[in-house]
Every structure is written in structure tokens, then in C-alpha cells.
């Protein structure tokens, strides 16, 4: 796949910068330690061969993009070598009813301008629409997206947390190809697999993934990105107690055995499991720790057998295949 003039390999790991920038509260300032942490994580990611970065205007109330922008400023020449993707469409209102979504013309334009300013760049390689806005208007969305493309502020459009019908609707509204869909997919969140094997049998009951979305993306070159691919460390954390679900204990045990046999880390097996799926899922890893970033990229060197892959799937679901 090509984004603007930049080529992407068939499968890759994306560094997710949600953890960078300090606290989520808007009024808590960025410290020197936050900047150092961000620089160490981003340098490690680049050294490990990661050149695709995922952000969002809401991460740490914009501070994630600010520390990223600081890194870009200190490393001139870097911008053209990397892919930067950010997201708009969620408003953290601070209102008692919580956050809401906003695909209005003015919000998309203002939010994207804010992103570019914080990142110290004049374009995004990809803009993702973060979560579906039920009040989305065809005319406003098209006008905003056309303007951003025409002004050279974005080079490609993608979505996040959307099914194939919503992707088709947005493609039709904007007249633009959707290049990526970012979803929560992991060894902990396996309904994307169960929806495919669960049709017409009990495995397919109460699933949190619509049958057809994966297939649509595969058939139409919509690259699949998985958020929380390490399941937020649930399998690699040391602590297990009587409250830990049996499925997690069993999966952790199997992961430990496979990792030991292959001489690698649990994190790399967790990612290798995800990346073995033929839809060529690209994990968006969110750890801020250089050591864990290094472990993650080891996933490219891990080959899981079919038996290992299915054993992990069955353990994680706590349910045999039909
Ligand atoms: N599109 C969306 O709606 C959406 C939603 C959520 C996230 N995202 C994107 O996806 C990226 C990844 O999400 P994520 O951070 O939830 O996923 P993740 O990569 O599964 O997990 C990373 C988190 O788990 C912690 N962790 C990992 N291994 C650990 C261990 N062994 N012990 C203790 N903690 C451990 C990390 O802490 P340390 O930093 O201490 O390692 C970090 O907080 C984000 O950065 C963001 O770019 C997108």
C-alpha cells in the first residue's frame, strides 16, 4: 500500500503514542520527565524499525501530540521518513454525561488544525475518524474532508471502531477511499475470529464483532490496525490472584510455555498470534517502555504452528471450536 509517496510493507507494527505526554487532565502540565520518556520511547521504536505512529487529538488532552511534536522539532529530517496518523471526532466535554462524538465541518477542521500545530508538521499522512458520530451529515463531512485534502493537510483517510457498512457509508459520503480501520483485536478480544467460525452454531452467540467487517477490509485493501494488541499487558504482567479469570490463567500458562520453547517473550507471542491471521493485522502497540517495544518487534521472528494458534484461541475463549 502507498500513502502519498510513502510505501508500506505488507505487514508492520505501529507505535501508539497514547501513553506519552503525562496525565490525561488538561490542566496538568508536561514535565521534563514526560518529554524524556517520549523521546526514549520514540527513539527506541525507530531503532526497532517502526516508522508508523498513531496518535489522536484527545490523547492526554493533546499532550501526546505535543511531546511528539517536540521530538519532531528536535529531529529535523525525520518527518518525511515516517507515517503519522492521528484521529479526530471525539470530544472530551468534561460534561456530566461524558464524552460525545463530532463529525461536524467546524470540529473536523479545527481539530485537524490543532493536531498539525501540536505536531509541528503541515500534514498528516492519514487522518482517522475516531468513532462513528450518529449525527454525521453527508455535506459537512464531505466539505471538511475535501478541504483538508485540497489544502494538503491530509494525504489519506481512515476510520476507527467502524464496521463495513459504516466504512461504505463514509466512502460514499466523501468519495474517498478508506485506507485503514482501527479496531480492538487481540488474543483477549477474539470475537473477530469467533464471528467467522461461529456462524450457525453456539460459538457465534453474543459476539462483539460483526461478521463481514474483516472480509470487507481484506477484499477492499482497508488495512486492519489493532488497538490494545498486547491486551494492556494482561498476559505478561506477573500478578495473578484468586480473582484472575481461569481463561487468563490458562492462556498465560500456554503463552509462557510457547515463549520458553521459542526463546522469546510472552509479548512477542501475543503479537505473533494476532499477526498470523491472514487479514494481515497491524498491531498498534502502546507501551512506553523501551524494553517492551523491543520485545514486541520480536514477533516478526516468531512462527506459530496451527496447533499453537488454535490452542491459544481455545484457551482465551474458554470454549472449544464447534
Ligand atoms: N482507536 C481507538 O479507539 C483506540 C483506543 C485505545 C488505544 N488506541 C491506540 O492503540 C495504542 C495501544 O493501546 P494500549 O496502550 O491500550 O494497548 P497495549 O499495547 O495492549 O497495552 C499497552 C499498555 O499496557 C501496559 N503494559 C503492557 N505490558 C505490560 C506489563 N507486562 N506490565 C505492566 N503493564 C504493561 C503498558 O504500560 P507501559 O507503558 O508501562 O509498558 C501500556 O499502558 C494506543 O497507544 C493508541 O495509539 C486506539
Topology of this structure?
Blueprint: E1 2-3, E2 6-7, E3 14-16, H1 32-47, E4 52-54, H2 63-74, E5 83-88, E6 90-91, E7 100-101, H3 105-119, E8 126-129, H4 138-150, E9 157-160, H5 164-174, E10 178-184, H6 191-197, H7 213-219, E11 223-227, H8 246-262, H9 266-275, E12 282-285, H10 290-297, H11 306-317
Parallel strand pairs: 3-4, 3-12, 4-5, 5-8, 8-9, 9-10, 10-11, 11-12
Antiparallel strand pairs: 1-2, 6-7
Helix pairs in contact: 1-2, 2-3, 3-4, 8-9, 8-11, 9-10
The protein binds NADP nicotinamide-adenine-dinucleotide phosphate (NAP).
Written overview of the protein:
With 322 residues, the protein is of the alpha/beta class. The protein has a domain at 2-184: TIM Barrel (Alpha-Beta Barrel), CATH 3.20.20.100. The chain contains eleven helices and twelve strands. It has an eight-stranded parallel β-barrel, surrounded by four helices. The protein has a two-stranded antiparallel sheet with strand order 1-2. Helix 3 packs parallel to helix 4 and helix 9 packs across helix 10 (290-297). The longest helix is centred in the last third of the chain and has 17 residues, at 246-262. The structure holds NADP nicotinamide-adenine-dinucleotide phosphate. NADP nicotinamide-adenine-dinucleotide phosphate (NAP) is lined by residues 16-19, 54, 160-161, 182, 227-233, 236-237, 284-289, 292.
Amino acid at each position: 500500500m502507498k500513502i502519498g509517496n510513502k510505501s508500506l510493507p505488507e505487514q508492520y507494527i505501529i507505535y501508539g503514542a497514547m501513553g506519552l505526554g503525562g496525565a490525561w487532565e488538561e490542566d496538568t502540565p508536561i514535565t521534563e520527565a514526560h518529554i524524556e520518556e517520549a523521546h526514549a520511547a520514540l527513539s527506541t521504536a525507530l531503532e526497532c524499525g517502526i516508522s508508523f505512529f498513531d496518535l489522536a487529538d484527545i490523547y492526554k488532552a493533546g499532550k501526546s501530540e505535543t511531546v511528539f511534536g517536540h521530538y519532531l522539532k528536535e529531529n529535523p529530517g525525520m518527518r518525511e521518513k515516517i507515517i503519522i496518523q492521528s484521529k479526530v471526532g471525539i470530544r472530551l466535554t468534561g460534561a456530566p454525561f461524558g464524552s460525545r462524538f463530532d463529525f461536524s465541518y467546524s470540529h473536523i477542521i479545527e481539530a485537524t488544525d490543532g493536531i498539525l500545530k501540536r505536531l509541528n508538521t503541515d500534514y498528516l499522512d492519514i487522518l482517522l475518524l475516531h468513532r462513528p458520530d450518529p449525527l454525521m451529515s453527508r455535506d459537512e463531512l464531505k466539505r471538511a474532508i475535501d478541504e483538508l485534502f485540497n489544502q494538503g493537510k491530509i494525504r489519506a483517510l481512515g476510520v476507527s471502531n467502524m464496521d463495513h457498512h459504516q466504512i461504505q457509508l463514509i466512502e460514499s459520503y466523501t468519495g474517498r477511499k478508506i485506507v485503514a480501520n482501527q479496531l480492538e483485536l487481540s488474543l483477549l478480544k477474539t470475537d473477530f475470529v469467533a464471528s467467522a467460525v461461529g456462524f450457525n452454531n453456539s460459538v457465534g452467540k453474543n459476539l462483539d464483532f460483526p461478521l463481514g467487517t474483516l472480509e470487507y477490509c481484506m477484499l477492499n485493501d482497508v488495512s486492519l490496525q489493532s488497538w490494545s494488541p498486547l491486551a494492556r499487558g494482561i498476559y505478561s504482567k506477573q500478578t495473578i490472584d484468586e480473582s484472575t479469570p481461569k481463561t487468563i490463567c490458562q492462556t498465560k500458562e500456554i503463552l509462557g510455555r510457547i515463549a520458553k520453547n521459542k526463546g522469546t517473550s510472552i509479548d512477542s507471542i501475543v503479537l505473533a498470534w494476532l499477526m498470523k491471521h491472514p487479514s494481515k493485522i497491524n498491531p498498534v502497540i502502546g507501551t512506553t517502555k523501551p524494553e517492551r517495544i523491543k520485545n514486541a518487534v520480536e514477533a516478526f521472528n516468531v512462527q506459530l504452528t496451527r496447533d499453537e494458534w488454535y490452542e491459544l484461541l481455545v484457551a482465551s475463549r474458554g470454549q472449544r471450536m464447534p
